[in-house]
Amino acid sequence: MINFINNRRMPAVLLVLAFLMVMGSFNFILKKHGSDNISVKAHPYGNQVKGELVWENRLKFQQLLDKYDTHVRMAAFETTLPDPLPGEEANVAHAADLLAGTILSPGKVFSMNLALGPYSRQRGFQDGPAYVGSQVTKTVGGGVCKIASTLYNVAILANLKIIERHSHGMQVPYVPPGQDATVSFGSKDLKFKNHTEQPIVIWADTNGNTLYIALYGRIKPPQVTWHHKVINRQEKQTVYRYDSTLAPSQEEVVIPGADGLAVKSWLKIIYPDHTVEEKALGVDYYRPMAKVVKKAPPQ
């Protein structure tokens, strides 16, 4: 499908286009492997953390681990926003501050909405970008889904039981499709259960546009690895925008866009006794994002 947009209409969609521009780089990651098996290791913005984290030598953090006897890092994950929009980075940093030091007792369920919400000005959140259906708009607390996605990944790697999780309507740039999570206070939540017999300490911090979240307990979890397969693609449409500054035959790609995807995800879990388990996580569906091209108006 091809659509044409006149320059006079562009101001109404600039925010959407700016955000979608961020997404284009991730679409390239999917396609460059030449198959529908997604390579998690190749992702440039969301990965498991193996090295030391900056807060792990801080006295306040060490005292918290001493108090709950939780000196084993169960899992850690980092996500980076390649080009944060206004308010997005501030909301992520604020949510990380609220999250750091949370204690999840044995048998209890963590709810992101209960722990961090409501995502309001009264709670210190700003306007930021958020998905509404297949559109991107501004809302107070926009950007906190980066916290949800990072928490989801670290909970998976710690082999905790996921109680509730929702994927985005379109791909996000900071984790592979199938590994994202979205929240909306009062409707969509991220919940996971501490099914172990030990308390778990949750810590989070940011460094610029990179978010780090880690879980600490008493026992190392089994080895958990992600696996994904694209089972369906929906071709993206091309939207042409007229630009009178271009030569008659000149075209310029503003946003590469992305195909819609249906992604099947599963986990491979290797226990200390070398027992191997595969756990199906279901299928996530992502709407296509339009490719936007500038071209000269018809003569």
TrEMBL record:
Keywords: Membrane, Signal, Transmembrane, Transmembrane helix. Residues 225-299 form the G5 domain. It comes from the Bacteria. The chain crosses the membrane at residues 12-30. This is VanW family protein. It comes from Metallumcola ferriviriculae.
